[in-house]
């Protein structure tokens, strides 16, 4: 692990809340995938843990392997080395204990209504009866402000509404951890701000544990309780920041922190580009 | 599209030019075609070459009443449905192999590229050699007509299922048969439906053509045979009645079966391609 990975929290941040039991452990994980150009190392020797109730924002520029890492946690990709453990047990494949909200809008089943999409996940993942699942689904459609659209098919909804359905579906299943893969990246700026606040509300209400991948610094600081900065090519942990009420959006410390991360991201990416090419030679 | 105009106040819509729905437009076109046919046939005045539209309708009516035509239609449909059903089952098997294994995929792409361009009717001599004259030979060529285009469409449909949707399905715990039937099949339904449509059209054409080649000894010949024998007997009005029946059945299946299936599934889901 690089020496600079444990950066002392900035002045505004509060000390770490390390008392919560570990929900997810990513243990020296390296991820590789094959392309036509050869084998690419997306993530190199990354380790971190997420405590129960914690929201970890994985922040980095495109190409730092943050989405690949999230997919590995989701069980869609096997680590080349290292281990991912959920509640102490190694992750073997995809499962509803790690519900994923993807960036793409086509993650909903087009042939099921809003309530139908949520209810189907509940029946499959939690084994609820048809009636129970429907009742819970309606409740969740209401909680994301889509009560009136419960019987609408996904193709009639806007992008933001589709993401709300996906978020409602993920929360309704009550996973051990929620995995969010840049869920608001394809939305317009206004919707993005509103959805971030809504997501934050739901997280705080349910006490959900969350791994949130993003390339936007302000989003990471706003949504996360802790921010992990990844450097690209291959992805490695460059820095870690604690976020607290004092650094919420709109405060002066928020701006300071944002500027600091910005500076580190640029410095980090330059450094990693040089180091990264050496490593790629090792694997190709 | 025209909904906007329909909801306008009556006074406004009166001043507009007449706007017809798609159904009404079709009816007008059909009426014009029939009128043109009637006028041209009357002007020609040779019912051996071209009977008038009304004569054809009369022949259709009388052949229906005397039970000849319904019997022929039934004979054709029986063979057609048998071949269509077998074709669907085989297409499902081949597609499943192609989706599950690399070898199956190569098999499908090789077989379809070999057999898809081969007209089903060209296999009829072989079919006659193997199965003799009878409905088995007809079923054989129909299966050939349905199988390849349907398998190709289904496979394309499965391959086109977005990766995000696949991951979302596996995420909520779908795997094995539930993954296929609760996720892949409905997601590929637009392609499957258009494959079924195409297969039906191919099967129907192939059958009529094949029935004209034989059927002589198969006492219960179908529609194709009806057309063929009536031509031999210079009952041209009956020939046209038979052709009209072929068209009517095609239209009926298209609008009643496939259009309905399309409306209650892919169009409602916004998946229409």
TrEMBL record, chain A:
Coiled coil (UniProt feature): none
Region (Disordered): 1-20
InterPro entries registered for this protein in UniProt: AAA+_ATPase, ABC_transporter-like_ATP-bd, ABC_transporter-like_CS, ABC_transporter_ATP-bind, P-loop_NTPase
Recorded GO MF terms: ATP binding
Boundaries of every ABC transporter domain copy: 24-259
Entry-linked Pfam families: ABC_tran
Keywords: ATP-binding, Nucleotide-binding, Transport
Record carries keyword ATP-binding: yes
Family the entry assigns: Belongs to the ABC transporter superfamily.
Protein name as it appears in the record: ABC transporter ATP-binding protein
Organism in which the protein naturally occurs: Ancylobacter moscoviensis
UniProtKB/TrEMBL annotation, chain B:
Subcellular locations according to the entry: Cell membrane
Keywords from the UniProt entry: Cell membrane, Membrane, Transmembrane, Transmembrane helix, Transport
Membrane topology designation: Multi-pass membrane protein
Record-annotated membrane-spanning stretches: 79-101, 107-131, 138-158, 178-200, 207-228, 240-261
Ranges of residues in domain ABC transmembrane type-1: 73-257
Family of this protein: Belongs to the binding-protein-dependent transport system permease family.
Protein name per its UniProtKB record: ABC transporter permease
């Amino acid at each position: 692990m690089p020496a600079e990975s444990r950066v002392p929290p900035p002045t505004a941040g509060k000390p770490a809340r390390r008392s919560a039991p570990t929900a997810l452990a990513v243990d020296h994980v390296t991820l590789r995938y094959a392309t036509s150009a050869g084998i690419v190392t997306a993530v190199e020797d990354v380790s971190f843990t997420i405590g129960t109730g914690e929201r970890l924002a994985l922040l980095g520029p495109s190409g730092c392997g943050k989405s690949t890492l999230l997919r590995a946690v989701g069980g869609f990709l096997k680590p080349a080395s290292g281990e991912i453990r959920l509640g102490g047990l190694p992750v073997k494949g995809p499962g509803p204990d790690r519900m994923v909200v993807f960036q793409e809008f086509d993650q909903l089943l087009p042939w099921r209504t809003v309530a139908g999409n949520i209810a189907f996940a509940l029946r499959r993942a939690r084994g609820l009866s048809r009636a129970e699942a429907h009742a819970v689904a309606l409740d969740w459609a209401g909680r994301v402000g889509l009560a009136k659209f419960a019987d609408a098919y996904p193709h009639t909804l806007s992008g933001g509404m589709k993401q709300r359905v996906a978020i409602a579906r993920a929360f309704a299943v009550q996973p051990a951890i929620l995995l969010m893969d840049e869920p608001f990246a394809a939305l317009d700026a206004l919707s993005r701000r509103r959805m971030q606040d809504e997501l934050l509300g739901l997280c705080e209400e349910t006490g959900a544990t969350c791994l949130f991948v993003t390339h936007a610094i302000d989003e990471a600081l706003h949504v996360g309780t802790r921010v992990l900065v990844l450097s690209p090519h291959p992805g490695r942990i460059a820095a870690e920041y604690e976020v607290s009420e004092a650094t919420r959006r709109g405060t002066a410390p928020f701006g300071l922190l944002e500027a600091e991360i910005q500076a580190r991201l640029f410095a980090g990416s330059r450094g990693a580009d040089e180091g990264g090419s050496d490593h790629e030679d090792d694997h190709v | 599209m025209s909904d906007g105009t329909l909801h306008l106040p009556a006074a406004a819509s009166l001043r507009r030019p007449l706007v017809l729905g798609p159904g009404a437009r079709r009816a007008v076109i059909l009426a014009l075609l029939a009128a043109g046919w009637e006028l041209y046939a009357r002007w020609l005045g040779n019912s051996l070459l071209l009977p008038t539209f009304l004569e054809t309708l009369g022949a259709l009516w009388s052949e229906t009443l005397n039970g000849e035509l319904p019997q022929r239609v039934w004979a054709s449909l029986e063979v057609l449905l048998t071949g269509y059903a077998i074709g669907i089952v085989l297409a499902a098997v081949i597609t499943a192999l192609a989706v599950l294994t690399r070898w199956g995929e190569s098999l499908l792409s090789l077989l379809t590229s070999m057999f898809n361009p081969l007209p089903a009717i060209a296999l009829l001599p072989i079919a006659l050699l193997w199965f003799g004259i009878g409905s088995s030979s007809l079923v054989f060529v129909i299966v050939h007509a349905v199988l390849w285009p349907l398998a190709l469409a289904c496979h394309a449909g499965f391959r086109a299922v977005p990766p995000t949707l696949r991951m979302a399905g596996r995420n909520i715990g779908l795997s094995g048969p539930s993954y296929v039937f609760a996720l892949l099949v409905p997601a590929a339904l637009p392609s499957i439906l258009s494959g079924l449509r195409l297969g039906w059209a191919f099967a129907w054409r192939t059958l009529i053509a094949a029935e004209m080649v034989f059927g002589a000894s198969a006492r219960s010949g179908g529609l194709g045979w009806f057309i063929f024998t009536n031509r031999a007997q210079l009952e041209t009005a009956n020939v046209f009645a038979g052709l009209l029946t072929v068209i009517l059945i095609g239209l009926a299946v298209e609008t009643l079966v496939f259009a309905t299936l399309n409306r209650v599934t892919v169009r409602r889901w916004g998946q229409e391609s």
